[in-house]
Amino acid sequence: MILVGRIQYQHWPVQHMLVLHSFGWAGLTIGLFPARKLMHKYATEVNAGVKREKYDILARYQVAAISSVIIGSLLGIILS
Prior knowledge:
The protein has four helices and no strands. The chain is mainly alpha-helical.
């Protein structure tokens, strides 16, 4: 977020970048909520020593995570 604040045409102060950072993390947390059971399953497999070539994540989980981060970042921009 500091990089995003620095490449803007107007340089944002640290307070604005902190708002963007916190809203981005909140959006990511909300977006990963639907995939929590799948992520827990993969984490227990990794802890048990099971190695996979590829971890399949459904498209709806990816869309939920990406869209919530974008929406959270836009809300952060609006509020800052």
